[in-house]
Amino acid sequence: MSRSIWKFLTSLRVTVVLLACAIILVFVGTVAQADEGLFQVQERYFRHWYIIGTTLWGHHLPWFVWPGGYTLGFGLLINLIAAHIKRFQWKMSKFGIHLTHLGIIILLVGQLATDMLQVESHMTFMEGDTGNFIESPRHHELVFVADAGKGNDEVVSVPEAMLVKGKEISHPKLPFKIEVKDYSPNGDVYSKAKVEQAVTQIKTALTALNGEFSTPEALAPLAQRDQENPGRVQFWRDALAAVGEKNNDDIVAAAKKVAAEPDRAAKLLTELKTRFGSQMRRAIGSQGAAEQLAANIVESGQTVTPEMLPPASTSGAGASVTVKSQPEAKDMDTQNIPYAVLDFIVDGKSAGTWLVSPALREQDLALGGKKLQVALRDERTYLPFSLKLLQATHKDYAGSDTPKDFRSRMLIDNPGTKENREVEISMNDPLRYGGLAFYQYQMTKDEMDQAPGRSVLQVVHNPSWLAPYIGCIVVALGMIWQFLHHLVGFITKRRAV
Amino acid sequence: MKKWLPLIITLIFLGWVFSQIPSPKDDGFAIQEFAKLPILKDGRHEPVDSLARNSLLQLRGKQTANFEPWKGDFDHPQIVSATEWLMEVMMNPVAADTRPVFRIDHPDLKGLLNLPMEKGVETDGKHFSWSQIQPKSDALIKEAQRVSDIPSAKRNQFDKAVLNLWRSTFLYQQLKCSLQPPDARDWPSELQAYLENREAGRVAAQAREDKKPYDEKALNQIVDDVSRFHDMEHYDEFGKRIEMRMPLFLPPETGTADNDWRRTGQSLMESIKTGVPNFAIAHYAVMGAAFRANDVPAFNHALEAYRAELAPRFGPNLKEASTETFFNRMQFFYLSMMIAVCAFLCAIIYWFRPVEWDWLRRTAASLLTLSVIVTAVGILFRMWLVGRPPVTNLYSSATFIAFGAPVLGLILERFWRNSIGVVVGSIISALCLIIAHYLSLQGDTLEMLRAVLDTNFWLATHVVVVTLGYASTFVAGFLGIIFVMLGFFTTIITPEFKRSLARMVYGIICFATLFSFVGTVLGGIWADQSWGRFWGWDPKENGAIIIVLWNALVLHARWGGMVRERGLLNMAIVGNIVTSWSWFGTNMLGIGLHSYGFMDAAFYALLAFDITMLALIIIGCLPLHLWRSPMETGKSTPEKPNPPRGAEPQPA
Lengths: 497, 652
Prior knowledge:
The complex is a heterodimer of chains A (about 500) and B (about 650). Chain A has about 500 residues and is of the alpha+beta class. Chain A has 14 helices and 18 strands. In chain A, the strands form five sheets. In chain A, strands 4, 5, 12, 13, 14 and 15 form a six-stranded antiparallel β-sheet that branches. Chain A has a four-stranded antiparallel β-sheet with strand order 3-18-17-16, with no helix packed on it. Chain A has a four-stranded antiparallel β-sheet with strand order 6-7-10-11, with no helix packed on it. In chain A, strand 14 (about 405-415) and strand 15 (about 420-425) form a beta hairpin. In chain A, helix 7 crosses helix 12 (about 290-300). The longest helix of chain A is centred in the last third of the chain and has 30 residues, at about 465-495. The two termini of chain A are about 50 Å apart. Chain B is built from 23 helices and six strands. In chain B, the strands form three sheets. Chain B has a two-stranded antiparallel sheet with strand order 1-2. Chain B has helices at about 5-20, 30-35, 50-60, 80-90, 95, 105-110, 130-135, 135-150, 155-175, 185-210, 215-240, 265-275, 280-290, 295-330, 330-350, 360-385, 395-415, 420-440, 455-490, 495-530, 540-560, 565-585, 600-620, and strands at about 40, 45, 65, 80, 100-105, 125-130. The two termini of chain B are about 25 Å apart. Chain B is elongated and about 105 Å long. Chain B is mainly α. In chain B, strand 1 and strand 2 (about 45) form a beta hairpin. The chains are: A alpha+beta (about 500), B mainly alpha (about 650). Chains A and B meet through helix 2, helix 4, helix 6, strand 14 and strand 18 of A and helix 20 and helix 21 of B.
């Protein structure tokens, strides 16, 4: 029994099957990126044990079941190590092959280690800024900051994972207990002003619409204008059908026909206004919670009242804003903005509730005889040294919009080692310092226009970063060895002939 | 005689290559000299010649302009060089507007623009002039606006044709205002008048602002001038949105910094404040006036004067521009493609009489060698011009495969001497050069590199090695194709032949595994250096790893005895599908760091290629009694798979 298992583990057939599965996995995982996005594909296909269901070229295939990256990676690793143990011989002619496979083992293990250990974060600077912490955009923390004198801060940090509705949190450094009244990993924070602004926006748009569809004479030109736009043509057809105009393939001709009959023309104008109006409300309403509320308000003909905007909390900034939970975004490009409503309990009595969210600034607290600031922000890790952005350079090629160069001149200040020196970080030329690697992030045109003089560094902590370098060298040595061995054999043979 | 034939034929081709070197003489306007003037386009110093050629490629897919396309090739239509056409566009736009240089094929688009569908009087039904398009240009713009809102993957053929033509007409308008306002009638005196009136106009404008009496004539004139200059700049402003920036024709007033080059409109706008437009504007104005007046000596004299003024400060630029003009004119890749096709034909014909016609095989081999040398010269020239390693974009990867594959083929030929290496090498080389030609239609092939790619070390190692991996996998795949085609349809393949083919393929796959693996890992290390991750599952990375996995799979299947010779050769054909997908298919997903843009035409070509390969594989798997070539050696004992040893090539 164990013998047949051993035979199976070391079998070349298994290698070939695993390789074939891996090819299909990588192929499917590449094509699926067009529909699912790079980030989700990584999580669901390559950093996973199995895959159920996929989307290829826009077609959803729920029956697709396949081993994931971890399964195949581990499978190949076991197969490789077992085959090595079984077939290992100290022979010059095999040495290259052993080296090659050893290198591949290093690569596979290194990649698995990277997957588990690598932490990505970033630092954002304006020119002249000094930073001594890195921020993780995907994780958040609840912090209480107290002034500890001498320009130092005392920080109590609560990870986002501890913010569970109904849970109580306490800390010896805090003069109160915290009760989590509400928490959502993603939500919209909005004020009365924002809703009113959206109401005005919708009303203005509706007025413009009513102006357009005011007279029967306007029908034909408007149909003419809209006939190029498939979405709008559909509204016309529906509206025309509603006034009993069945022959509406050519909306311009149909509109002309209806416009000639005053009764039906008036009816058509109302139909069109209703349809385009509700479509406009839907479009604006889908932009966010504030816009959604504004759209509902306009539709029901009400005005903004305090009841519609329940304050998120009794004290602090939350007293004047409302929050609404939103579904958590899973793709890479949209950022989640979490929020929490906290009740601070001093000596067994509630001191009121506060709303915290990265969308709000730090809020001042004066509770239990202590002055603090509270905030829910991107998770920070403090460094034993600081970096200062002296100069950010972003260049395009002359007379074009192709980016030519991104670089940041930084000053490292490390009190521990008494280092105080300038370094330059550019694309393809990262700074490796203090166990971290700092990479220049290439900003898009929009990002640069919005904030000139800003520089973003991507910071990666990856203890296994050397593994691919070593693995690559070992494999290359093995292959070259094998190649030379054959070449020597070939030449000797030719000589002999 | 037969001994010398290969040499003689090769020398004839060599003579043909050399005959391209001397530059054609100008009897009238010094067009060749004008072509060598330096300009700055998309951050790159290039000659006017390159701008002219690339513009015509965009407009009509050719590097020359045919002013009488309705005439047959033998009726001597008036064909002019790209620069001559561009000179007319920039200096005499009224005449240029009547030249049929816009190629339009889609019938609906012709219908939209009310253009003749068929060949007729003074039209070939395919090429049209701006004067013909202009009456309906509103309809074109309206359609183009509609199309630009559609995601590129959802556009149909008509949509694409509309957008293409609109971009071409926009480019044409940009060119028309590159040197002078397009509506200028007598630009030198208009320029003079503007400069003389400038101060008076400014005073008048200020006076009106202050509600004081002002010189109305001076004000009107300056308002007029400013709006003309502004119109010229508008084409660059708008071009920013669609990544079509105008060329910078005017060298810096002082110094040589790239950022001090100017567009004509830009310099004129600046001159409203400073009063001094760039020195080159006056030179170009004189040239333009002489060109319009058909005054050859005056034009050539003005050109000479401009070049003389450039010489002390812009010596290197002038030299660089004239080198690039030479490179453009030589069209090395076109020459080497023609020679490769001839080599291919010789090698194929040889197979009909393999014994008597050995000279033909030798001719094929030496022609392919010549073709490789010409390709190599082209690649080296290109490297020298851009100051970069051989592969910097998709275009250059195609030319590099066109170099690598025939080299491998020639090595095979040296050992086996049966013209298979030549056939495979020449066909891949010719195909890749054709692909390169189509890629060159997409824009400047010597383009500058984005910041993230701007590193010669990684371009020289990762990209070159990966491309060699592509080339060798293709060579193995085409060997497989030859096996299936010859084996199934002819009686040429003998068991012996099959064995040697399998050996070649085995050796090359070992080679391909090495290259694709090392290249892929180097790419990972580059990624680690640039953005902090070794592997990110980006489509291009995935494409590369699939090639490595596939090659590894083939080798292990062979070692494990799961496939024999025929299986190996069939698997090599699968390698073609894998490699073509990795090379091109991954660029068509439209996502990822490596994507070069959506190429729709290439998508169908790729699909056709892959279907052909599948068909060949199916044929390759058909039972042996259907094959015309005798595959089995009678009652032969089943062969034992012979592990790694098979890699050793055997002398013929």
